[in-house]
Design brief:
3 helices; alpha+beta; two-stranded antiparallel ribbon; elongated; 2 domains; HU Protein, Chain A
């Protein structure tokens, strides 16, 4: 399912126009993104939790030359599904 299909289903289920549904979805995504950029956690009870995971720096190897390299630490988004979502998928 892609964004256009989600917007169409949201419009059908809520009675909003597709344009309004698209704005709502964009606003939701924007708010989650802003919260994660600040380092906050976003929890939707039953659905899941969006959080920022910090990866530690580590060593690695260049696959072409075999030389040792240092891989810098970084932050990445993480989603942990809630109990109700896990049960619905099972």
């Amino acid at each position: 399912m892609n964004k256009a299909e989600i917007v169409a289903r949201m419009a059908r289920d809520t009675g909003l126009t597709k344009a309004d549904s698209n704005r709502v979805l964009d606003a939701f995504i924007g708010q989650v993104t802003r919260a994660l950029k600040k380092g906050d956690k976003v929890t939707l009870v039953g659905f899941g939790t969006f959080a920022v995971l910090r990866r530690r720096p580590r060593g690695g190897r260049n696959p072409r030359t075999g030389a040792r390299i240092r891989i810098a630490g970084y932050k990445t988004p993480k989603f942990a599904p809630g109990k109700e979502l896990r049960a619905a998928v099972r």
